[in-house]
Prior knowledge:
Rossmann fold; 47% helix; globular
Amino acid sequence: MTNRPLALVTGSASGIGRACALRLAAAGYDVTINYSRSRDRAEATLEELHRLGGRHRAIAADVSDDAAVRDLVHDAAIGGRLDALVNNAGTTSETPPEDLDGIDLDDWDRVFRTNVRGLVQVTRAAAPFLRSSRGSIVNIASIVGLRPGPQPLAYAASKAAVVSLTKTLSRVLAPEVRVNAVAPGWIAGEWMERTLGDRYEELMARRARATPLRANVELEQVAESVVSLLTSHPFVTGEVLVIDGGYTATS
Length: 251
């Protein structure tokens, strides 16, 4: 048993999930990180968490598998308690956004199983524990779920669904549980490298020049906003915080 608050971060072997897990550990949480296939990365992240102090765990589970999700949440809710949930697990498609005819519907379903069904299954399994602790949820959306962008259609549509679910779940889980989301802009790193390909450096630089804060968001900045929503703002729920340096608001 631990007296520290407990957090579960899905899809947290790397990227936004890893950054959120580290920030939560620094804030005094015992964190359960989750991964599907990236075991080596998860173990490296777990080592980083341990260096920050606390009792942390890494659990393999595919969030699109409901039975695996229920086991994951049961293990994360030590002593029947869970204080924070970050729904970060996500995947994308390789189909270019302008290639409507090239959409593979099996691939479309794969993206939605993880990004949308997975979020619902994790939230449903965690809801009793979060209600008991009057906990908080932050879902990881994207600005591409709010406006067009250079992301595959399946990914964009799934993130729009995350935005809608955030608002709906904030009502369903009220008043005990607050549910919010963050919608990051272009984040420097491997995700946008895959999305932009050979034009990564050029397009990221152009986006930074067009952003009022003259930079692209970093993983640690997203994590800071996620933890702030989880731990502060006690009368804020159903909101989507855009983290893009003012690009969406001014372009």
